[in-house]
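Our collaborator T.R. sent over the components below with a one-line note: 'Predict the complex.' Nothing else. No constraints on interfaces, no templates requested, no preferences about which chain binds where. So this is a plain run: every listed entity goes in together, and whatever single assembly comes back becomes the starting point for the next discussion.
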Amino acid sequence: MNDTQALASFAALSNETRLTILKRLVRAGPSGMTAGDVAAAVGASPSRASFHLAAIAETGLITSTRQSRQIIYKANFETLGALMRFFLTDCCADHPDVVSCC
Amino acid sequence: MNDTQALASFAALSNETRLTILKRLVRAGPSGMTAGDVAAAVGASPSRASFHLAAIAETGLITSTRQSRQIIYKANFETLGALMRFFLTDCCADHPDVVSCC
DNA sequence: TAATCATTTCAATGATTCTTGAAATATGAA
DNA sequence: TTCATATTTCAAGAATCATTGAAATGATTA
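Returned assembly:
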């Protein structure tokens, strides 16, 4: 992960609706959730949820696949791990006080 | 660290100038840097650097102390660690694929 | 084919954020 | 006190982002 990707990822995490969506998808497990279920779970209109889901997916933190009529969103733990690694190493220079929090 | 603090922290990290400043301060070590030196290091005007330094300091990710005429900014590794822990646990639910990146 | 369901896209509006340069504040030196 | 230095604050304008509801797209069913 480079600076540009990290900046976009942090921007994705800096909005309340998007953070709530991400946390919900992380806890949904590998089967993911449909866009409609995400919208209902976070109390957002379909169009608003779609807007934010697209913004998160753009960063790679979540993925989407169409399954017949619905679109399934899933957390992408590989990218989430890469972002954590970026924060730890690139931002914090692997400072022991931060590493010890792991 | 709660959701509100994390949202503000991620917003602080989502701007190129601020991310550059934070990385620079992390590497400056415990003596920190003056506002002027930070501005010069990241190629920003004093007023622009001051604006972004204040935004980061607001989140607690960095601290400031006046030393005679100058203001010394330092990375706050305690808060940086708390943010990492928030991301790992609250966002990622301590998912093994993310934890393994530590 | 027509109707329905799930989702996205679009345009308009409002809100927030960033940049710039000038002015203000705070500290120390002459 | 006056001047110089370091930094912040402020106002104006530009740019970006979020929300809303209506319309469009894609897929399934009758």
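Summary for T.R.: Residues 11, 15, 17, 45, 47-48, 51-52, 55, 66, 68-70 of chain B lie near DNA strand C (CB under 10 Å from a C1').
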